[in-house]
Structures are given as structure tokens and as C-alpha cells.
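Hey everyone, long-time lurker, first post.

I ran two proteins through the pipeline my lab uses and got sequence/structure pairs for each. Pasting them in order. The first:
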Amino acid sequence: MISFPARFLRASLAFLVFILTASGADAQSGPPILVTESGQLIPVKVFVDAGDFDAARQQARAVTVGAPNQDLWIRLTEGLILVRQGRGDEASRAFRAILSEDPEFEPARLELTSVLARSGQREAAIYHAQRLAATTENERLRRDLDALLEASRGQPWGLSFRFSVEPSTNVNRGSSQETITIGDGGDLVIENQAEGGVAVRLGATGFRRWILDENMALTLSGGINRKQVLSGDAANETTVTARLPLSRRLERGRLSFGPLYERTYSDGELYRERIGLETGLSISPRRGRTWFANASWANQNYAELDYLDGERTQFRLGHSRQQNAALTWGIDSSLLRETSRRDHLDHTDIGLGAFIERDWRSGYITSLRADLVSKNYDGIFPGKSFARYDTEARMRVSVRNRGWQIGRITPEFSYTYTNSSSNVEFYDYDSHDLGVAFTSRF
């Protein structure tokens, strides 16, 4: 879904293209191509908009006779024709080729900015708008670009806050079984029984982005999430995360790579620390269709449980598709490998997931996600004659409504069912979880 800033950027840049072509090209050498002496549009752009490309080419050649940069103006006209034909990628390449020869040729940079904005390449469009605003001698254009950048981009940072109330039939993820069989020694009572309760979560995330050039950006992001158990026998948790990915825009997607850091506290004491790297790739070969892949690796250290120290490696591959304006769906698969200092704790998880989201005319937005994960452990489980094997099934349904928004606060209601079936009774459980979440973004 296109955000308001993106729509505003597109419309404003289209208006600025008109302003530049209607106010003359004072900073360019040679006669202006698209305006008369009185500042009115001449038939070049009119012919392009009308689809009469031969007439546009003839006019472009006629009005630039004797100009030292006539070739650039003619090539600019070819780029405008490509835009009119809906060949935005080819038009972008044409405008970039002009700028590689003459970086100060303002009409090409403005047209490139407009094409990038219309195709949703917001950061690249902002980069060229910034560069044009910094170099143009057209005072009116500079003022308009500065106003556009301030209104459409705002500060290159963002904050969001989240609060949720989460009643659960199994807040501690305790076993649904009462006993566990230990070899020939009989059955032992499982003390970690499933227990209902209520928890609240408080979270905040923020980011700061630096646009390095047309294709590269560096983003520092961080977050904190607090789980406070109001009732039920479960630990309170606080997790702090930080990321610093360097991203590169591709012709039809984006590639990112950078470090990650995570620290988790349990009941106020340090529980676990993770330090690693992550990378992500998304490709959209056609509008509304996206393939994505991401991977991460982290070394994890436990403050009190040294035998859990090890590595965590994860891969994910998926596809999402916007079927139409109201329906989006997707599928994905995942692979997780986690090692420790105990063979029976090392495991490989294979997962499959699918989701569908529907935007209804009534204003409701509903989503459904289902996941199935197979967990395979390496070593023989203590007290058993076999390795542990779990199958976890999870389904989540959520609903929100555009009319429910209160200022910047958006409420969402959800229900999640989780079933973990294990050949080790201690890890056999199910859970019904409700959620009422409130999110605010700045």
C-alpha cells in the first residue's frame, strides 16, 4: 500500500516538472526546449503527452538548432517519450545516461526524480531532489524543492510505540501432561504445568537513516520490548535490540547487510546475549509480486546457563503477492539451526508458513497466518532412549478497522492458537492467546 508521503512526493514532483518547464531553463546553455519566450509550453511536451512522438521529435530538433547541447535535449525528449509509453525503467536509464555526460543538466535530473517517485523508489527520488535543490540556480525551483523535501520526507527518523494486553491459557508454556516417563524408573510428576494468566507488553522502536547516494542508505535501528506478567507463574522479560544495516537499491529490489545485537533480561537479571550478522534480499519482478530471502547468524551466550552457549543460524525464503487492492497473500519457508554444548539440545527446525490479508469495504482489515514447524534434536534426550522431536502448529487471526484509529493510535485484536506435540512429555502443550494491541507511530 502506498503511503501518504509517497503519494505526495509523486504529485509534487509532477507539479515541479511543470513549474520548471513553464518557467524557462535559465541555468541551461542554449535556448529553452519546452517553453516560449513568454513562458508558455510549446508543442514538444504537448505532443509527447498526446502520443504524437514524431511531431515531438521534430519540434525538439527545430527549437534547439545551433545549441551546443542539442543532443542532450533530443535525448531528453526520447526519455519523455519512454515515460509516456510506460517504460519507466528505460526512461530512468536514458536520463541517467544524460546526467553521466552533464551532471548539471537540470531537466534530466528533474525528470529522473519524477520517474523514480512515480515508481515508488522514494529514497532515490529524494537523493536527486536534494542534489537538484543544492545545485540549481533557479530560485523558484530551489524553494519548491526544499518545501517538497520538508513536507514529504520530514526528519529521516521514526519512532513507534506499542502496548498490548495478552490473556493466555498457558502463559508459562507449561506442559499439558502431568507426568513424564523416565526409562525404567517409572513416571515423574511434571512440576511445570500449564498455567493461565495475563501479561502486558510495552515496546518501542526507532530508526535513523542516512541516504549516502542514489542507491545506498545506512540505517541505525533499535528497540526495547518489556513483557510484564500480571498473573501466572512466568518470568518477566526485557529484550533490547540494535541493528545497523547498509542497504543498496537494485533495479527491481533491495539488498541489505549489517550487524545485529540483542540482549535479554529475565526478572531483571541478564539471561542471554546475541551478537551476529544478518542480510536480506527482496526482488519484485512484477508490480505486486515480491520474492524475499533473509539470513542471519549469531553467537549466543547465556549468563547463568553456560551449557546453552552456541550459535544460531536462520534462513527464510518467501513470496508475497498483492492480488488486488483489497487482497494480499504470501507463503514462506524457514530453516533454523541452533547449537549448544549439549547434543540433546542441538536442533534443526524446518518451517512452512502462509498468510492472507483482506481489506474490506466496511473498513475492516482481517488477516490470517498459519505456521507449521518441525523441530529435530540431535542427541538422545536424558532419561529416554530416543532424541526429542517436536511438531509445532500455530494459527493467528487478527482484525483492525480504519475507523477505530484514535489520533496516531491504531488498535488491533488478535487470537493465536499454538499446539506443540512432542515425544518428550515435558514439551507437549497447547495454548489459546488473546491480544489487544495499541500501536502509535511518529
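...and the second, right after it:
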Amino acid sequence: MQNNQTRTLDRPILKTDRLKLRRPDTGDIASIVAIAGDWEVSRRLGRVPHPYGEKDAVFFLGTVVPKEWTWAITWLETGELIGMVGLSPAPGDQTAELGYYLSPRFWGIGVATEAGKAVVHHGFVAIGFQSLISHYFSDNPASGRVLRKLGFIETGPVTRPCLAVGSMQPSVEMHLDRGRSG
């Protein structure tokens, strides 16, 4: 398994039937702000503040993207940025946390599952992670359904910080071992 620094610099484009996943860049700032700045999106994420502005997107691109496996989810036909998906490596290089968000315009049509499947596959096969974790806030069962479709199993209730809400929130922890992925 390569070290984190080498791996994140070598982020390939991933394609699915409807999506192209690519490294986000400064040309995406307006779209990132529009999507992550939507209260219905930010309140479902742990690390995204609200309100979310251009300086937050610049921080994300300059600090998070270089250190984590992060892809812009774009609609293959038009190139429109519709969300983000990524793997945040845990210390020790064997596990990463899957996270994702989408523009509400694309909720409920399988995009998160489609993007997640490509990233989970890449994480296990190309990067070599042995397991993945993910969390969803208890008031967001749709995210739990996405994770179950990807093969994740529930490991229990937890509380997690939500920057947008400004407090700890009830959450569900999910886990996926390399051998169980679809």
C-alpha cells in the first residue's frame, strides 16, 4: 500500500454510467458554495459550516483535497458539478471514512450510490484499504439506505459533531470490510 501523500496526489478520474468523478479545482468554487451552502446539505454533514462561503471552499480545495481522496461528482453528459465524494484516511493507512454530499436536485435518483460504489471499489482495489467506515445523522435515513446498498452494516448509535448545527448530533456508525464490498 502506498503512503497517503503519494496516493492522494495520484487521484484518477473515475467514470460510471452517468457520472464522472474528478479532482475538484478552483473552477468549482461557485458550485461548491452553492451546494455546500444549502442548509439542507450542510446540516447533514459533520465538517461543513453554515453559512458556507467562498473562503470555506478555498480552504476545502487548499487543505482538505490535497490530503484526502476527494472527487467532484459531475454529471457525465453536461459536466455540471453536482456533489462531492471522498475517502478520509484514518491513521495507520488501513481504514478510511467515506463521505459524500449532493445537490438536492439530484437526491433520490441513485447518484450517491453510484458515486459511492465507484469510490468504495477504488478504495479497496486500487488504494488497498482493508475497511471503510461512514456515519449518517439519525435524521437522514436516506444516507443510511445509500450505505446499506453499498454493503455497509450498522455498528451502532453514536453522537457526532455537526459544525453547521453547532452541536453533537445522534448518528449511526456503519462499517464495510474489504471482502464484503459489492
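Reply from user beta_strand_b:
Welcome! Quick read of the second one: Helices lie at 4-9, 29-36, 39-42, 54-64, 111-127, 141-149. Residues 4 and 91 are 10 Å apart (CA to CA).
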